[in-house]
Structures are given as C-alpha cells and as structure tokens.
Amino acid sequence: MSKILVVAQHDDGQLNVATARAVKCASEVGGEVEVLVLAESGQSIGEAAAQLEGVSKVLVADNAANSQPLAAVLAPQIAKVAQDGGYSHVFGPNTTYGKDLMPRVAALMGVAMVTDIMAVHGAHEFDRPIYAGNAIVTVQADSGQAVVASVRCASYQAAGQGGSAAVEGISVDAELPTHTRYVGLKKEGGDRPDLQSAPRVVSGGRGVGSSENFKVIFDLADKLGAGVGASRAAVDSGYVPNDMQVGQTGKIIAPELYIAVGISGAIQHLAGIKDAGCIVAINSDEDAPIFEVADIGLVGDLFQVLPELQGKL
Amino acid sequence: MKVLVSVKRVVDYNVRIQVKGDGSGVNLDGVKMSMNPFDEIAMEEAVRLKEAGTAEEVIAVTIGGDKAEEQLRSALAFGADRAIHVKVNEEVSPLTAARILKAVFEKEQPGLFLMGKQAIDDDNNQTGQMTSALLGIPQATFAGELKIDGNKATVVREVDAGLETIEVDLPAVVTADLRLNEPRYLKLPDIMKAKRKPVETVSMADLGVEAAPGLTVTKTSPPPARAAGIKVKTVDELVAALKDKGLV
Q1: Domain B2-218 part of CATH 3.20.20.70
Q2: 3-class secondary structure, B150
Q3: How far is the CA of B87 from the CAs of A108, B176, B194, B206, in angstroms?
C-alpha cells in the first residue's frame, strides 16, 4: 500500500492552498497520506493541514533554519524523513516553491522525479504535460523506488476541510548547509486576491498599451473581486510586474472565470489558462488566436468595452 | 573564474508540435531545432560576465547526439571559449543528465554553473536542482538578476509571491529565468569564428557515469481540446451570457 508524504508549502505562518491541492492528488493515489511541515514554528500550520480531508497524520519539524523556504536547507530533511519513514511517494506542489525543492529531494534520494502530475492512473502511472501542454505523456515510474513528484495545482481542487489528523512534532537528524542564505522577498501583488487561487481572474495584454492604462483592468477586477494577471508581452513591456504573468513560464491557473483583455493568445499564454472554467476574450482583432479557445468572445475596443461592462455588472 | 554553461538541443520554440497518430511520441521529422531559449539566456549571462571581466573563461557543455554540435557552435558564437560534447544517442533522464554534468563540473572546477531553468521540450525543470544537489553546492533557480561579488553571488529569484533575493557561496548552480537578460543576435563573423573554436567530445563512459533511473513514457496524446465557444456582439450580450452560466 502506498504511503505518501506531502510537503506543505506555507507563507507568513499560513498553510498555502497549493498544499491542499497536492493532498487531493495524493488521495487519488490512495493509501496513507501524511503531511510534512518544515517551519521555524509550525504548530498552527500543522493544525491547518490536519483538517484537510484525506490526511492521516501531520509531521511538524520545527527548526530555526526552516524559517525561510530554502531548497538547499529543506531538501536534506525531506529526503531523510522520506527514507527513514519508508514512504513510497513524496509529493509537493508545482509552485515555484515545489519546483525549486522537489528535484533536489529526488536527487538526494537518487530517484527519478515526475514533474507536474495532472492525472493519476495508478500508484506508479501518471499523466504530465510536455511542450507547454501541447502534448500529454503517460509515464510509468519504477515501482521498486520511491516516487518524487510535483503536482500540477491547476489540475486539482483543494482537498476539503473536515479532517482531524494527529499532529506530531518530530526532529530530523540531517546535516544542513549554510552556503545558501535568505535575504528578502519583495511582494508586488498588492491586496488583490491571489492569482493562483482566485475563482475569477482578469488579465491584460499588450493591447492595454501602458502601465497607466492597466487601471481599466484593475477596475474591472475590483468590481468582480477578481485577481489580476497579464500576458508575457504586457510584463515584458513593463506594464506590470513579472509575478502577474500567466502562461507556461509564469503562473498556470484554473479560475472559474478568466477574462483575457487585449491578449492575442500566444501558445505560451494559452498553456497557462487551459483549465479555466470559462474563458472570455475581449480583443479588437477578430483574428486573434485567443478566440479559438475562448468560450465567449467579444470583438471590440477594450477602452469602450471594459467601462461599459463594469457598469453593467 | 571559469563559468560552465549547459545547453540543450530542443524543438524551436516557434514550432507548433504534432503528436504522432499512434501515440508513440511527438513528430520530430524535419522539425526546426534550436538551442533551448532559457539556455540562450544562461549563455548570454556567462558571456556578459566575461565581458565585464568577472569571468576569465566560458565553457559550454551539451549532452546529445551528433547534431547537438550545432547548438554547441551557437554557444561558441555567443562567445564561449570552448565546448564539451557529451555524446549520447538516446534520451537521458534529468537525473542522468545531472550525473553527467556533475562529472563535467568536477573535471572543470568552474566557479559558477549557469543553466536554463527548464528545457521547453520535456518541461521537467529538474536538471539544475539535481546537479547542485549531487554536487552538494547551492542552487539559485529562476534567476532574474545575478550579481557576483568575490566568492559569493546575490541572486534575485522570480517566485510566485514576487522577487526573492538569496545569497549563495560559490561555486553554485544558477538557473536562468526569462528576465535575466535579453540574448544577443548572433552575427555572421561570430558564427564563422565559432567554427574554429575547440569542441571536445567525450562519452558517458569516459566520464565514469552510469545512467540513473528514469521514467518510461507509455503513451503520448494531444491535449484535450476546448470546445468552440460563441461570439457576442455587444456588452449586453456578454453580460447575459455570463449570467446564463452563473458566473456573475
């Protein structure tokens, strides 16, 4: 039977929702699902993880060295817990946190890694995207070894609440390097809903034209209580910061409603929104590729359409 | 300081790939191949370090069949001083690639190992992290800014929450994200000059490396297509359609 260790992601003392999505994927594999919290002081994070449906146990490893998410520091601890505990699987989310961390864990354990699980066919058989999601491969992992994987969060709903797993404090005997030091984090997003978990997202592209003009996108988003994203073209043009980029090399999201404004629909952008419930495209170019994937398309000048739309919602 | 840069031959990023009808893979016949775009950024960064006097020598390395030499020649045209071609005809898993790159690193002893954050063919995003883990040295992935100061590097990383800054001791593996720099266009004289630069060819056996466990691909399929949508003519129709779907 599988025994799965899910690595918890947390920021500012809060459990990140990506953890609940990874737990959901782990539950599909079946067997025991346990969550590992590595933090400076992780009791409350552990208690939040214990409430996730499908979790049978939560391990909390407190250590001052775990105050920041440094892969070089966290990976040896995860590998140690995974090996000593005889886990068959070690999962993490495919956020930048998990992308940075999980391959380091796999290498320390000497095993292959599955990046971006999007479907589970069995304990060792998974689907994952390649070529920016333009092809899907079914991969078979060696059943004689532990499977280290990242879970494509956009493919999984968050595990529900209602669990009541035990929370157990552990100490991990692993040698931790000091060659990597955290300096700081500059957050650029502001107070709007988090792009990766917001049920509604409004994104602007090159068609918006300038940083000042992005106000129309923010205004519509605020009216809808939506998160705000951008295409790579808009980010490269300096209209908005890079953490707002949606697409293959930015964030891959799956909101219920995605409104793409002035976005032509480059392949790499579409790779980031394929799992959205409903895609609305507003663009002045009726031949823009975004219309090929949009559920609802409106050809028009965004500077007229958006204020009108905002007024009528 | 020596800077090592790994480059991979991949399907050009402008190509719209096709999945073979029998599910056996992606059709690569006659498809344009290029250097992985993130590796170009890594290459550019290395050359800029040399131009700034921080690096004395830039060495490019690739793992692949005979044709991968084309991408090494591109790396040399960017400004690498010499190149190492680890000739392997079959696909290698990221962990095998990491073992190979570890062996090359140990032979060359660079102060910095630059790589792209991921290859745009298999999108694994593993090799840099795995290589640094095997070497027991720091990793700074998704670099948007890199500053070298003596035996330390300060790296601004593009993370979900914003821009994270870390400091690492050198040597370290740094993987390039999109905004680290904008790679130069290769000029004809540089391409000509690159033809005369040295390329050393080695095998996995020469490096004493054995293949690591990997995954077996059992099927390749096209992604599920999204159903064709509707076009509306006015904002009123748009609002009505959204209300109809219960989205507003």
Answers
A1: no
A2: coil
A3: 26, 24, 19, 10
Query: Quick check: B235 and A308 CB within 8 A?
Result: yes
Listed by start position, the domains of chain B span: 2-218
Report the amino acid identity of residue A120.
V
Summarised one tens digit per residue, pLDDT across range B91-103 is 999 999 999 999 9
| Residue in A295, A305, A306 to test binding to B, most B beta-carbons within 10 Å | A295
Beta bridge partners of A11: A14
Identify the pLDDT of residue A189: 61
A135-188: per-residue pLDDT in tens?
999 999 999 999 999 999 989 999 999 999 999 999 999 999 999 999 999 987
**Token digits for B106?**
């140990």
pLDDT at residue B55 is higher than 90: yes
From chain B, the residues in CB contact with A277 under 8 A are 247
Provide the β-strand partners of residue A184: B165
Q: Where in chain A is the domain with CATH 3.40.50.620?
A: 3-169
Residue of A nearest to B230 (CA): A296
- How does pLDDT run across A223-262, given as a tens digit for each residue? 999 999 999 999 999 999 888 999 987 888 989 999 999 9
pLDDT of B207-226, one tens digit each? 999 999 889 999 999 988 87
> Using CA atoms in the order B82, B88, B94, B100, what is the torsion angle rounded to 10 degrees?
-50
The closest CB to that of B217, out of A107, A139, A313, belongs to: A139
Average pLDDT over residues A184-205: 87
What's the average model confidence in pLDDT over B153-177?
96
The domain A3-169 belongs to what CATH superfamily?
A: HUPs (3.40.50.620)
Residue B119 near residue B10 (C-beta atoms within 8 A)? yes
The two three-digit tokens of residue B198, written as one number: 């040295």
Decide which of 3.30.420.40, 3.40.50.300, 3.40.50.1220, 3.40.50.980 is the CATH code for A200-312.
3.40.50.1220
Of B212, B25, B177, nearest to B103 (Cα)? B212
Where are any strands of DSSP class E within A160-255? 166-169, 180-187, 200-204, 227-230
Give the closest of A112, A292, A297 to B95, CB-based. A112
In the numeric block, which tokens belong to residue A244?
């707002």
C-alpha dihedral, A205 to A207 to A209 to A213, nearest 10°:
-70
Q: Are strands B152-159 and A125-130 parallel, antiparallel or unpaired?
A: unpaired
- Residue of B8, B115, B129 to mutate when probing chain A, most A C-beta within 10 A: B129
The 10s digit of each residue's pLDDT in A70-118 is 999 999 999 999 999 999 999 999 999 999 999 999 999 999 999 999 9
Domain with CATH 3.40.50.1220 in chain A: 200-312
Which H or E element spans position A136? strand A135-140
